[in-house]
Amino acid sequence: MAMKIRLARGGSKKRPFYRIVAADSRKPRDGRFIEKLGTYNPLLPKDNEQRVQMNMERVQYWLDQGAQPTDRIARMLEAAGTREKAERNNPNKGTPGKKAQERADEKAAKAAEAAEAANAPAEEAAAE
Questions:
Q1: pTM reported for the whole predicted model
Q2: Which residues form the signal peptide (predicted)?
Q3: What pLDDT does residue 85 have?
């Protein structure tokens, strides 16, 4: 069985609350799970200790059994200090989209033309 440690959403509309659960990866996100391992409340401030609560003994047990944490759970485990910080690299995240690049190219071209136009009268005056 492919096990995951993941978030199962609860709470009402626009008021999310998550359970940290060990579940079969083939089950739906909010469906049946094997064990509840903790809670995550994203509405609380980041420095509040009630924001993320985990039963670390059980989390470690499931990790030893081969359960794979999702990206968000892996970050929570890194913050708790039970997992080594993984190197993340997404070089395309900061690059602008096609339209933004086209606008930047047009702006650069206009700036170059304006610089040429400004330099042309100065060059003519220097030649005289």
A1: 0.67
A2: none
A3: 83
